[in-house]
Design a protein that fits this description.
Blueprint (H helix, E strand, L loop, with lengths): L1 E5 L8 H9 L4 E4 L4 H9 L5 E5 L11 H10 L4 E8 L6 H21 L3 E6 L2 H11 L4 E3 L6 H8 L3 E2 L1
Parallel strand pairs: 1-2, 2-3, 3-4, 4-5, 5-6, 6-7
Helix pairs in contact: 3-4, 4-5
């Protein structure tokens, strides 16, 4: 079993804790990025079978500069781009949603450019996410924590994404 989405940088990582999880059957972890401030904490986690995605979570309240993300990608430590996406349950104003769209479009462009999968966070923004995914197609990756209706699942699966 692999934990395909976690935030090991949320707290001080105890390598003994990872070993306990290994003994319970987990064989690897994908640590999803949240913000530039936390990318350094992610890079510091050098443990066997821990891989990293780098991105700006839609909840992060950080000025956005796509060159920061590209710099991290070029360092070669990330296996994927994310966690990125749209969360319209939190972004209620037009300008907040537009900002999330621009940030996600930048992530998808870099995923294409560097041939990396994406880790997507999509909440109450299904149609907007599909528009951006189609504009950037093909994009590979996963929508984590999916809890929508079967029709929405088919839309993502039909675009080659995992749920």
């Amino acid at each position: 079993m692999i934990d395909a989405h976690c935030h090991l940088d949320d707290h001080l990582l105890d390598l003994g804790e990872l070993e306990q999880r290994r003994l319970a059957g987990c064989r690897g972890w994908v640590c999803a990025g949240f913000s530039p401030e936390r990318w350094a904490r992610q890079r510091a986690i050098q443990a066997r079978d821990v891989w990293h995605a780098v991105g700006l979570h839609p909840w992060a309240r950080t000025p956005w500069d796509p060159s920061q993300l590209e710099h991290e990608i070029k360092l070669g430590w990330a296996c994927a781009i994310g966690e990125c996406g749209l969360d319209f349950s939190r972004a209620r104003k037009v300008e907040e949603r537009d900002h999330q769209r621009r940030v996600l479009a930048d992530h998808l462009k870099l995923a294409q450019q560097y041939d990396l999968p994406v880790v997507l966070h999509i909440v109450r923004a299904h149609r907007a996410a599909l528009e951006l995914l189609d504009a950037a197609a093909p994009v590979r990756g996963m929508v984590h924590g999916f809890a929508g209706p079967i029709e929405q699942a088919r839309d993502f699966l039909g675009r080659g994404l995992y749920l």
